[in-house]
Design brief:
Elements lengths: L1 H7 L19 H10 L18 E3 H5 L3 H13 L2 E5 L5 H9 L4 H4 L2 E3 L2 E6 L4 H11 L1 H31 L10 E13 L1 H5 L4 E3 L6 H5 L3 E6 L4 E6 L2 E6 L5 E5 L1 H6 L7 E7 L9 E12 H37 L1
Parallel strand pairs: 1-2
Antiparallel strand pairs: 2-10, 3-4, 4-5, 5-12, 6-11, 7-10, 7-12, 8-9, 8-11
């Protein structure tokens, strides 16, 4: 038995040469195999590493109805519900100077959300107009009002152009082609250095504070007068990006999303204020909420009401005629 086991065991391996002299411990074939085995594979990094930023459209190109500008606007509005407008003709430096020199503006309206002041531009409020005239004098007030009305006029013009391009893209719906009236609200926001340094992080305006109100409108135009971080909240989630005081950010409201049957997305925007932001002056920002009234809808409703009234009137006339004939018949 022992002889059988000892005879079946494999012989020990031959000793490996020491590698001295002309002989090598590893032959050339094994060396090539090892070299190939330890070869580091080539790694390719993704090409697109920058953060998402909405499309930037040159406003004069929209006025000329250039196809490339309109297509990029429609694509960004459909996918994200937001687009950036540059070359709009509003001087952020002049606007900032005007608002800084007229800080009395924020004493007229004591609107506040957290750490920032809010002023609603509404000169149909006679009480506010009288307070403004007393604060700076009638002549100064008229000059200031004229300057701010010019800014409002330009923002309304941008809103109308963007709305028209979006509506006219749906050529199958004739009701998108007529607008009877518009509703406009303009807000001016201010956050001072002390206000911004006393908070961990906040948004201007605070998220959900004006979210529902913004969605009721067709378009919301934001004009930050500082290079800040802007965040868009849409059905795709939160999308932050950097913005400059030369850019108007346009977000779509729920009104356009409903009228397009979901073809275009609604979104809400906010400006981020962070404690590590070094500012020597107040942070200022403008917001315009713009909505439209469709002419065809009103005509349709009016026609519908007239039709029902006519039906009632015809029914009353028929009843009177019937009773008249019945009376004449019974008397005979």
């Amino acid at each position: 038995m022992r002889k059988h086991l000892s005879s079946s065991v494999a012989p020990p391996p031959s000793p490996i040469p020491t590698g001295r002299g002309s002989r090598s411990a590893v032959d050339s074939i094994l060396g090539e195999y090892i070299d190939q085995s330890i070869h580091v594979p080539h790694l390719t990094l993704p090409k697109n590493t920058h953060r998402w930023v909405p499309d930037e459209i040159y406003y004069p190109s929209l006025l000329l109805r250039e196809n490339d500008a309109m297509n990029r606007l429609l694509s960004s509005a459909a996918e994200f519900g937001v687009v950036r407008i540059i070359g709009h003709g509003i001087s952020s430096e002049a606007l900032r100077t005007m608002l800084t020199e007229n800080e009395w503006l924020f004493r007229l309206s004591r609107g506040k959300y957290g750490n920032y002041d809010k002023f609603v531009w509404d000169w149909s409020d006679n009480t506010m107009v009288q307070k403004a005239k007393v604060a700076i004098g009638e002549q100064n007030f008229l000059f200031f009002r004229q300057q701010l009305e010019e800014v409002l006029k330009k923002l309304k013009g941008i809103a109308k152009e963007v709305d028209e391009i979006i509506r006219m893209s749906n050529t199958s719906d004739e009701s998108w082609k007529k607008i009877e009236a518009e509703e406009v609200k303009m807000y001016i926001y201010r956050c001072t250095k002390n206000q911004s340094s006393s908070m961990d992080q906040t948004w201007l305006p605070p998220h959900n504070a004006t979210l529902e109100d913004s969605f009721k409108y067709a378009l919301n135009l934001y004009l930050p007068l500082e290079p800040l971080e802007f965040s868009v909240h849409s059905k795709r989630g939160r999308l932050p990006f950097k913005t400059s005081p030369h850019t108007i950010i346009v977000t779509l409201g729920h009104q356009l999303e409903e009228w397009s049957d979901g073809k275009f997305r609604s979104a809400d925007g906010e400006v981020a204020l962070k404690p590590n932001l070094h500012i020597d002056q107040a942070l200022l920002s403008l917001e315009l909420k713009w909505s439209f009234t469709n002419l065809n809808d009103d005509v349709y409703k009016t026609e519908k009401r007239i039709t029902l009234s006519d039906q009632v009137l015809i029914l009353v006339i028929l009843i009177l005629v019937y009773r008249m004939f019945l009376f004449m018949y019974t008397n005979n």
